[in-house]
Amino acid sequence: MAIQRVVKPTTRKGKRVLEARQPITIEGPKQTLVLHGRKTSDFIRLGLKDLYRLKKPDAKLLSRNNDITIFENASPVEELCRKYETSLFIMGSHSKKRPNNLIIGRMYNYSLLDMVELGLDSFQSLADFVGPKITLGTKPCLIFNGPAWDQMDELKHLKSMFVDLFHRENVENIRLQGLEHAISFTATADNKILLRSYKVLLKKSGCKTPRVELEEMGPHLDFTFRRSKLASEDLMKQACRKPKILKVAKRKNVSRDGLGTLHGRIHVGKQNITSLQTRKMKGLKKTAEEKRAEKKQRKRPLTAETNSTKPVASKKRKVE
């Protein structure tokens, strides 16, 4: 393992640059490096350009070819990510053994964390779809279809990569008109991943809630899962560690469901139900006959009854 050199700033500008590279509590959108491998086809070049357009402005596109075989040696990609300060990369390549190849990967501390290799089977670019496109920097709505995303370890990591790739700023509230872009990822039973990009249209419905329609605007990508290089559990746990400031203190008897709704449980002591004041309803009032019977019951005198069946012994007087 190579020992990293500690750089000390000599100027004020250098100090500001190093401070900007330090980790922060709440990070912004992750930057992505889009690059070409040793050899690329026109198919892959157009696909990389469309993925770059979806990620803009949080992406950097390199137009030159790079002599890199990342599964054998990841050092060149790590150096490029360190140079351009990116934590994600997308590399396209083309060869006889693996045609139209696309590799998506992540970095942790500018070292390779994990990556997945996909084969591009079919492609339709943004220019092939007629119609308006989304504005630059729009936050998309990500949709994952199919149970395989939560069943296979490789697809779990790929789902996490797609979320990191298209995730933008953290927002607490969102308005309905802000949902302009939707990206759908479908995992099929024959090991295919289908990527579709839609523009969300809000049309009149005759009521307060508008009618929502999806219009495909491209790109249209079909992938085949090829191979992967996943991180170990310890390294992934270290990379996903949250600072103590962001950890929410656990509250007793309070929980949230999958939709974020807050649920609380209250423990109440034993209560006398007969003494509770209920709502006075006409149907629950006592009738005149019930009132007279209750009044007679209160006026009835109490009689003392003995339940003992044992005879009482008589006292004999002593005769002297």
From TrEMBL:
UniProt signal peptide: none
GO biological process, one term: maturation of LSU-rRNA from tricistronic rRNA transcript (SSU-rRNA, 5.8S rRNA, LSU-rRNA)
Pfam families documented for this protein: Brix
Superkingdom of the source species: Eukaryota
Subcellular location, record wording: Nucleus, Nucleolus
Alphabetized SMART domains for the sequence: Brix
All residue ranges annotated as the Brix domain in the record: 30-234
Region feature Disordered, mapped onto this chain: 271-320
UniProt protein name: Ribosome production factor 2 homolog
Taxonomic source organism: Photinus pyralis (Common eastern firefly)
